[in-house]
Amino acid sequence: MTEERLQLLPEDFLREIAVKEGISINENIDKQDLIDLILEAIEEDRAENVMANNPAMQIKERKFDITLNEQFDFDEDQYPLPESYNETKIVMLLRDPAWAYTYWDIKDSEIASLKFGNLSGKLNLRVYEMGKAEFSKANIQDFFDIPVQIEDGSWYINLPRTGIYYCVELILKGSESEKVLCRSNFVKSPQWEVGELDLHKDLKGSGNDLLLVAGVYDLSAAEAAGKIPQRIISMIDSEFLE
Amino acid sequence: MSKNKGYLGFVLHSHLPYVHHPEKEKCLEENWFFDALAETYLPLIGLMNKLYAEDIAYKLTISLSPTLTTMLMDELLQERFVAYLEDKIALGEKEIVRNKKDSDKLKLSKLYKEHYEDCLDKYENLYKRNIIKAFKTLEKAGCIEIITTAATHAFMPLYQELPQVIEAQIHTAVISYGRVFGQAPRGMWIPELGYFPGLGKYMKQHGIDYSFIAAHGQLFACKKSKYGVYAPVETSSGILAFSRDIPASRSVWSTDDGYPGDQVYRDARQDIGYELPFEYIGPHIFDEKIRINTGYKYYRIATGEAGHRYQPEKAEAKAIDHADNFIYQRIKQVKKLDKLMDRTPMVICPYDSEIFGKWWYEGIIWLEHVIRKAALSDDLEMISPSQYIDEYTENEKVEPIFSSWGNKGYASVWLGGANDWIYRHVHKASERMQELVARFPDESGLKKRVLDQAAREVLLAQASDWPFIMKTCLNADYAKMRVKRHLHNFNKIYDNLCRNTVNTEWLTRIEKENKIFPDLDYRIFGAGKVNE
């Protein structure tokens, strides 16, 4: 979106854009100041996008970069989607070794019971840490609860450990009893280190040399870099190529 | 063991989402395809033909996505591409007049105009609009191996609980490849290198021999591989997974420390489409008011500075230097590896094809000289993964972990605050598609047409491009519209089938708009189970 393009837009529309961009504006702001603020926010977004993406993603982003103008007027209501599918269900998706996303839906009749009927209590997500992808008491290693609201519909869950399975239940917790509304699928959080590699040994011996060449150069640096694989590997690259 | 010290596996991934809007006179997003064709695919085919004619030995692996091949074969898009090229040539004529007193710019105006004229001439007269045939000819000549990718490029890990989706994506891709290329693919590019344990069994079931993964997908697996990332590993299902080599990838991918960031190269963003007044540029931008890239660019990359003229001779010399450097680094790399391995290391260099030409203007020159130098080298040989696995039939058994080449290495690009809302709906539509197969297992005629279109709409909603654009691009409206429209179309069909009604006029219209996979059979969503 260029300044030239923004100049053509009515002030009311500019105010709407400012709200969408999260810019707080006072009532008396003039059009040029408003445009400057919007352009500043857009530039910040762009810089943030660049920072957040690795080189492969930056290039892919440019595949879709055909104009700097806003080019599409899409009426969000043109193709409405159902707010609910009237089923009681919860799904868990693994985002990375440390985070999972869960979304849920609750049948209209159960929501009515929760709000007005005989089911009372507070809605919780119960996250199970499991040894196997099979729900049984013996496989539960630990669990924790996250209070949520019916309206939330989805939640990001921080996973405490890697290399184990997780599943989540939607639970109604009363003062003395609980009701499990539904249980999700299992996800397995992958381990975040090199298999069978003893970090305390000399990496340059005993068949580990190939791993050094391949990219596992300095795992302590990886930990310091926040355990982001690309960062681990980019450090290795420069070391290896020296 | 080979006489060479190392193999280079160049993999060019070629994909764009399906964009086809016959309902509009023109569509801005179709320029994704036209720009890629004019700036990457036609120059790339030209380069490969030239090298073949000179008897230069090389082998590239090219993944062509089913959505891209469909667009390459679409008559409407072919017609519009010709109009696109004619407009570029017309702009070139104007630019030559405008720049007649500026010799540097004039030279570039002529260069660009000649490029578009050459594209038009080859597209119409040499390839006769049949780009697929041009690729096939190169494959027949032994220069390239063509592989496929998932039908609409879905990010597989986010559908692993829906086996019918994984199955439909892979099976449809293999059928589409067979229809287009007349044979079965040996390799499959996993969209965004998004692997999850068990994915291989779906590919194996459809005859795929090998695929590619992110390096950490293998390095972080429970079992350590003897050859690191320099040999494929055999997954639990028997698919061979080749890992991306990070040093080789980074030297090209990185905008900061990679070759394309050099300040002598052309700046892709400084384009007269954004610079010249509407009275002049109006007829060559979108709807005469939306400024777009025109391809006429006169400046080189110069961080924070303006007015640096682009000099193609200097840029070409630098691209040749960078090709030298790349080959030098790879030779150094394989010599180190040679001491550590008892077989020839395979260095996998995967790139998005559009890097070459479209994003890195001089990338085609760089690629040409990499190929020429590799052909002359005693230490390197370019081969395809198929050639490698035919030579080394035994490979270590390791199941890679969940991984991708996206930011942070997993799914956060495709699953975050900007795009997580889609999964609830796309998952539901995928489940309902399977339900429809169970309810209507043996339909024909009009009802089959309806069900086939429902399957197309679900597949198109699953494309990884839509959540990607929602996450990374400032204007995500087109991507949102596409997901919502495909879901809306699907839901309408689902509701109509529940009421046993069909609006044939509406059906015909959406069949024309979304006419991908002409031989799709909706029952593909009924499988979902694979043999262990």
Automatic annotation (TrEMBL), chain A:
Q: Which domain of life is it from?
A: Bacteria
Q: Which Pfam families match?
A: DUF4912
Can you say what this protein is called?
Answer: DUF4912 domain-containing protein
- Protein source organism: Candidatus Thalassospirochaeta sargassi
Automatic annotation (TrEMBL), chain B:
Q: Which Pfam families match?
A: BE_C, Glyco_hydro_57
Q: Where is the active site?
A: 192 (nucleophile), 352 (proton donor)
Which InterPro entries does the record cross-reference, listed alphabetically?
Answer: 57_glycoside_trans_central (IPR037090), BE_C (IPR015293), Branching_enz_MT3115-like (IPR040042), Glyco_hydro/deAcase_b/a-brl (IPR011330), Glyco_hydro_38_N_sf (IPR027291), Glyco_hydro_57/38_cen_sf (IPR028995), Glyco_hydro_57_N (IPR004300)
**GO biological process terms on file:** alpha-glucan biosynthetic process
Q: Which GO terms describe its cellular component?
A: extracellular region
- Asked whether the UniProt record includes Hydrolase among its keywords, one would answer no
Q: What is this protein called?
A: DUF1957 domain-containing protein
Can you name the source organism? Candidatus Thalassospirochaeta sargassi
